[in-house]
Amino acid sequence: MKKKMLALVMTAAMVFSMAACGEKKDSGKEATSGTVETGEQAESNGMKVGIAMPTQSSERWINDGNNMKKLLESKGYEVTLQYAEDDPQAQVSQIENMITQQVDALVIAAVDGDSLASVCGQAKANDIPIISYDRLIMNTDAISYYATFDNKGVGVKIGEYIKEKKDLDAAKAAGESYTIEFFMGSPDDNNAKFLYNGIMEVLQPYLDDGTLVCKTGRTSFDDTCILRWSQETAQQWCENYLSAQYADEKLDIACSAFDGFSYGIKAALTSAGYTAEDWPLVTGQDAELMAVKNIVAGTQTMSIYKDTRLLAEKAGTMVDAVLQDKEPEINDTEQYDNGKLVVPTYMCEPQPVDKDNYKELLIDGEYYTEEQINEK
């Protein structure tokens, strides 16, 4: 990696001079549109990191961005954190600006994993390493590392939860069946396909033998994926399903890949007159605060807890290692092929959370407080 040694030496000299004079530098910056600036910044090491996040409409991305920014600033990096509000071209423009600002590294959670190859090539041409964050950037060899959760594992855990809670093996033996509908992730997010494959690895045999019945017939990824993870689309789909296919028979399982979908599904079920007595099993992902409140209230059955503090820490340490010319910790070198290379990856482990274990995982684990969960 090329280092601008003269600039670093001059910066270090300036910092030393300011410290010697007892001058305190304000670490915060005024937030601009699409930019979040938080946390306390340690003495600058003269290096800059750009973080490009997809949207502030989901609680988890706000937490991811803020956690990573705080960690990197504690190590002395100057950090620019921006959100593209699910606009692929806006994210490209933000990354281009970061390259122009001569950041030393980039962390990118893609809005559209297929739209960033060109701008990532620009970063590579400027010797800027890229950490792909949670959503794999496709069709470019400019990616240094990838930090994510075990995305197929998320799907497997959702499928296994449904299998166990509905005791599908016992239902099969008794000749019984459950109705199910699927609400899968965005087609431009590579993770969504891994998750779908994990779910179907568990549930496809029960669809094949009739233990699970999907009355809409929509079981393929193409038929169940929801662009940009839209809550509104999930609600509209569920409303349509309930009115067209479930007027005379109740829906037993709503297999949702995202908490946001589950909020839309909840609204559709409520409008259709479902009550606690016939409420279906509703899955989710991300363990957002609202989802946990719904789990406690009984309108969502489970979610997948992905500790974004851990993922942000892993990505932050990856950046630090790369900029210090060290090898970061990885635990997968086979699974994540982006079409140009198999990206060295660190995968964090997701965990199912429901009414039985949310206190242990989320409150005892200090992810949320009991007051937050119980707040109306």
From TrEMBL:
<feature type="domain" description="Periplasmic binding protein">
    <location>
        <begin position="49"/>
        <end position="327"/>
    </location>
</feature>
<dbReference type="InterPro" id="IPR049784">
    <property type="entry name" value="ChvE-like"/>
</dbReference>
<feature type="signal peptide">
    <location>
        <begin position="1"/>
        <end position="19"/>
    </location>
</feature>
<keyword id="KW-0732">Signal</keyword>
<protein>
    <submittedName>
        <fullName>Sugar ABC transporter substrate-binding protein</fullName>
    </submittedName>
</protein>
<dbReference type="InterPro" id="IPR025997">
    <property type="entry name" value="SBP_2_dom"/>
</dbReference>
<dbReference type="InterPro" id="IPR050555">
    <property type="entry name" value="Bact_Solute-Bind_Prot2"/>
</dbReference>
<dbReference type="Pfam" id="PF13407">
    <property type="entry name" value="Peripla_BP_4"/>
</dbReference>
<dbReference type="InterPro" id="IPR028082">
    <property type="entry name" value="Peripla_BP_I"/>
</dbReference>
